[in-house]
Amino acid sequence: MRRSITLVATAVGATLALAACGGAGGATNDETPDAAAEETAEGGELSGTLTIWADETRIDLVKEIGAQFTEQTDIGIDVVQKASADIGDDFINTVPTGEGPDIIVVAHDGLGGWVTNGVVGTVELGEKADQFSESALNGVTYDGQVYGVPYAIENIALVRNNAMLTETPDTWDAMVAAAQETGAKYPVLIQQDPVASDPYHLYPLQTSFGAPVFASTEDGSYTADLAMGDDAGKAFAEFLAAQGAAGVLDVNISADIAKQAFLDGESPYIVTGPWNTTAFTEAGMDISVLPVPSAGGQEAQPFVGVQAFFPNIDSENALLVNEFLVNFIATPEVQTQLFDLGGRVPAMTEAAESLEDPILQGFNAAGATGAPMPAIPQMSAVWEFWGAAEADLIKGAGAPADRWTTMVDSVSTAISGS
């Protein structure tokens, strides 16, 4: 049944004023988003059409969910497909011209650039903010402001072959020792590259040493201050060198080699994401998904990718954007439907906790307190130096602490010059 919503001039004026000063999806200071959307003028109701950009991996689910929204509200949804490699830059380039969409649906890691370029609006979630997982909400937060509505998260975890082991210690060293006792070719598989390593797949181990790539504020927002250059980072460097020397980590184990080796029963463990587990279950493997054990004594936090809807700061449809984002997307029912369509773990905890698939439950548990991929512009200066240093450490090239310090210095120089 269609939901009828009417407006009054004061609500329209307040919302449009807010959109003009940076909050296309928000509400006034004294109103919750729901109150702003539900204030009405006699006989009026929300109408119009929202334009949403989605890439090739999300186009079908956005069309499906958009059609449902239109059926409920009579607000039209025009979904435009954009290439995943171009959508973020096109958003930056078109919003100032007035040709941008009302909303884009993308991963969160471009948020810093959109904020810096002044193209993305804030969203006031009110009490609904507490209904999202911490990592999901942090992913759409920048400098303390929320800029989008997350709908899904994805992260890596430890996948166990239950035919080889049925229990897993909670420390890395104990896990490796137990795996070695099985006589497996590899105690654990983590994909690597001879030149670039793979900082993404190694990050849970790094955070377990208390060495996040960037410092963060109390609200979870990242700062531009590197946080991996102190003694904790150097301890992680020593760990990488030791794991390489022991043959636990090998830069010649590519993603394809790691996946096939696990399928072939050559290791009881692989650190990977949900994109590989379908192949494992289709091969008849009995697997469990677990948090990555701590190597450094602290919690191992994987990077978390957050999928979200972000509003155009200059949208002329501020009320419609608010209705779609806050009163539709930010509901457990719709988040569950987005999971059914896209297969990613919902960002809202109620929807995520209702999942019955133990594999997805495992990934959700492993990522619930994970670290959102930094969305700040400075992150682009990190990857090349970071990966090269980790590859050298695993290969035993140079003194670990010195190699790590050189990497941090190089990243700092690149950030200061960017």
TrEMBL record:
One of its GO terms (molecular function) is carbohydrate transmembrane transporter activity. Residues 1-19 form the signal peptide. Keywords: Signal, Sugar transport, Transport. GO terms for biological process: maltodextrin transmembrane transport; maltose transport. InterPro entries: Maltose/Cyclodextrin-bd, SBP. It comes from the Bacteria. GO terms for cellular component: ATP-binding cassette (ABC) transporter complex, substrate-binding subunit-containing. Belongs to the bacterial solute-binding protein 1 family. PANTHER family: MALTOSE-BINDING PERIPLASMIC PROTEIN (PTHR30061), MALTOSE_MALTODEXTRIN-BINDING PERIPLASMIC PROTEIN (PTHR30061:SF50). This is Extracellular solute-binding protein.
